[in-house]
Amino acid sequence: MKIVKKTLFYILASLVALQFLLPLIWMILSSFKIDEVIYKDIDTIFAFVPKFSDLSFDSYVELLGFYNIFKNVGNSLIYASVTVVVGLTINSLAGYALARFKFPFKDWILIFIIALMIVPIEATILPLFLVVNEMGLINTIPGYLLPFIINVMNIFLFRQHFLSFPGELIESGKIDGLSEVGCFFRIVMPSSLNMYITVGILTFLASWNDFLWPVMALSNADLMPIQVALNAVFADKYNIFTSHMMAALTIVTIPIVILYIIFQKYIVEGSMQSGIK
Amino acid sequence: MKKLILLVSALVFAISLVGCNSKQASDKEKITVWTQAAADHPEGKMFADRVKSYNEAHPDGPKVEIQNITRAGAGSGYIDKLNAAITANEMPDIFTLDGPDIGAYVDSGLLGELDEYMSEGFKDGFTQAIIDQGTVDGKFYGMGYSDSGVAIMYNEDMINALPEDVKALVPSLDQDWTWDQFIELSRKVDEFAKTSDDPAFANYEVPVSLLLTDITAGAYELGTYYFTPLLWGNDANIVAEDGVTVDGVLNSDKSVEALTKYAQLFAEPVLASATESEKTFHTGKSALSVSGFWYVNELINNYPDLKFKTVRYPKMSEDFDGLYTPSGSWAFVRNGQEEDEERIKQIVEVMEWLNNDEASKEYFAKNGSIPTRINSVDAIDTNTDNPYHNDAWTVLKYQAENTNKSRPVSPGYPYLSETFAKDVILKIAQNKTTDEATIKQYLDDAVKKIEIEFEKYKK
């Protein structure tokens, strides 16, 4: 009976996994076909089990002839990395202060932060543009990165995490002569690695997937991140190549998949700790 | 600590002032152009080349700077940035807008008119549809740099398999035909397909591809663009000349009559589907297709096995001799907040450079943009080695020169277009509505919705 249950469980789990994996597999396989074959195969088994003779690198060669996608991937990697490193430090410090220190209006600040979490980015994009423009930072990398370094959601997540952080560990650090800042960087931070990785990945993905703000904040084509380049491929009304779109999406997806594979253990643990679903 | 905060604040303030000052000083020495084309795309490159050639030819004039800003879908991204720039009083001197949006920007007082600043005869060099597209209340605001077109394409293998008497229903590429003839041909194709085992019909699903799935997916403008000509060809329209009156126009008897004819495509046995499969025509699943001009490149480059022929967009009646085929695209407009007459002249001179006969030819050569200048339409080569290309462009060229009509100018065009496409065109197809009374009801309901929205535009 146990074996039957286990088998059924694995069959069900595999089916659910397949449901998520099949679109990815289709995307990757389609990137190696020409459009005519993609749509001829679309409602047949060949969509997932292609004929070897139908596969080629043509779409990648043509796509990279049109667009320097790798330049945009490189830009995105740099922007996302800077946002993650600087953002994690600042947001975790803010979360730590809100969790452990007593200071005037602390509760009001927390309420304000929670309130800000429900405001969608589309509602704030125009005032944000006006402020950055007034500062003379439009079309500069600092102007693009600064507004998204501070993230109220991340501050809240860190605050929730640090609330349950054992105070004894910090006290023992202080007894050993560490300052408050020293305790944070040498005890709290290393002990909260899972949380940092989880929030880091969320921040990385948000930065990686951002389209609207880079279009608003940057004008120089050489500085554009990958999502802007992707939209250029998608919005092309004169040269509609599904295979190009699939090739571009495959290139863009690879770094994210690698990130997940490396950090998947931490993501699950961190999610459980912070209650992220 | 207080000193440090003061110092940092002063520094930030100083930096922002320096930024503003340097910008204002340099603004007068340059003319900025924004377009919705991606910088890496051939369209973005062709604009950049054109600006470069202007700067080279005018070394003593103001320097023209171009920013190609990527758009997503219908225009978001680019339009968001443009609207933010308008709010921040940072509008570029020249920018691009989609033709149907010109009315709304004029209504907001954001665009400057061009008539009195253009060289003599320059406006008359545009095709009529492009002049109409850029004209609001009799004043010219938008120079269209590219036109568009829609024709009927058919699968040559499928049509060749038909009996001779049915084949005879297909017009030649220089012949007009009507919706009645189009529907009759579709019906005959369907009758044949259901009894034939000809290999050309191996993947057959439906006689006609209409791309209504794009409306379901949110591309409302495509529905209006493809099918407003049904009304035009029957002396009707979706909005009155004033751009804000729809009652008695959109729901007129003539409109009902035209849409009832369109609805015949959905009478049993259905000839077209609101849920057709992806790339129906491209993959040999339909014999006929209402096709945008972009199909030509797409089919030739991506579907080399498909043999397709092109014929004209059908008329509503044989006797109709007005303009009726779909057209229009993006256009260059100028910042209406500029008041310096001398500078406006310089700006319009740059606009003329970006839209003259030579530019129009260049754009077609580099990006396949249908020329908007009468003297440039001949740049469309219809004598290539590819007969499918030649046929398609012969038809599209004829329509651009003779029958293309601009979409109506209205400050509330986006809402009008969405409501017409979704609540009328798509609804008829989804519900397979064929009777006049129900179609009239759809139109009356749409009119009620649009009238409420249009209240704000009525002065």
Automatic annotation (TrEMBL), chain A:
Q: Which Pfam families match?
A: BPD_transp_1
Q: Which UniProt key words apply to this protein?
A: Cell membrane, Membrane, Transmembrane, Transmembrane helix, Transport
UniProt-annotated location(s)? Cell membrane
Which residue ranges run through the membrane? 7-29, 77-99, 108-132, 144-162, 183-205, 246-263
Would the keyword Cell cycle turn up in this protein's UniProt record? no
Keyword field contains Cytoplasm: no
Bilayer topology annotation: Multi-pass membrane protein
Q: Which GO terms describe its biological process?
A: transmembrane transport
Q: Which GO terms describe its cellular component?
A: plasma membrane
Top-rank taxon of the source lineage equals Bacteria
State the family named in the UniProt similarity comment for this chain. Answer: Belongs to the binding-protein-dependent transport system permease family.
This protein's name: Carbohydrate ABC transporter permease
**Biological classification of the source:** Bacteria, Bacillati, Bacillota, Bacilli, Bacillales
TrEMBL record, chain B:
Q: Which PROSITE patterns match?
A: PROKAR_LIPOPROTEIN (PS51257)
Task: Return the GO cellular component terms, semicolon-separated.
Answer: ATP-binding cassette (ABC) transporter complex, substrate-binding subunit-containing
UniProt keyword list:
Signal, Transport
InterPro entries named among the record's database cross-references: SBP
User: Does the record's keyword annotation contain Mitochondrion?
Assistant: no
- One matching Pfam family is SBP_bac_8
Single GO BP term: maltodextrin transmembrane transport
A single GO molecular function, which one?
maltose binding
What family does this belong to?
Belongs to the bacterial solute-binding protein 1 family.
Q: What is this protein called?
A: Extracellular solute-binding protein
Natural source organism:
Metabacillus sediminilitoris
